[in-house]
Amino acid sequence: MAKPRSTRPQQIIGWREHISLPQFGIFDLPAKVDTGARTSALHAVDQKLFDRDGAPWVEFMIPLKNRRTTRRICAPVLEERDIKNTGGVPERRLVVRTTLVISKRHWLIDVSLANREKMEFDVILGRSAIRRHRMLVDPRRSYLAGPPNAVMTAPERDLTPEQMPIHDLHTGEEE
Questions:
Q1: 24-34: pLDDT as tens digits
Q2: Cα 69 from Cα 85, distance rounded (Å)
Q3: For the stretch 12-43, what's the b/e string if a residue is b when 16 or more beta carbons lie within 10 angstroms of its beta carbon?
Q4: How many CB atoms lie within 10 A of CB 162?
Q5: Pick from 161, 20, 6, 14: which is nearest to 104 by CA?
Q6: Which pTM value belongs to this model?
Q7: What is the CA angle 22-71-142, rounded to 5?
């Protein structure tokens, strides 16, 4: 039996949107929505792998353009895989999981860590980040979603990405 279709209306977003990655301390950052890219990418440098309780973790720095602070982050490694760069050449990247906030909604996404120093945007949102969230991309327009201001409770802000529940703020249901 087929799964019933969601009654939630589709949200139209632009090819550029303001997002937040609150678990990484990143708020209101311009991101490129790239449906040609499968995996999202975050500008991260000085990556160091380490072991925590028998699991691989990575420590990295997020040097954001036009921001005074550089953030040092530790996160569990979800996987390491080959991802094609902008030139189409596969490169080995670490992938971590974090919360994406766009408009009034938030959910978990997988994001690869890459040196995007020469790119215009520090973050690329690939199609897997927006799939199953009823979003349509209008490639002619930008910043349609409004500011990223999903309401996250105090316990959610303190959770690791693995513990984070995924809520749809339109319905109040977990996805």
A1: 988 999 999 99
A2: 26
A3: ebbbbbbbbbbbbebeebbbbbbeebebbbbb
A4: 9
A5: 20
A6: 0.81
A7: 55
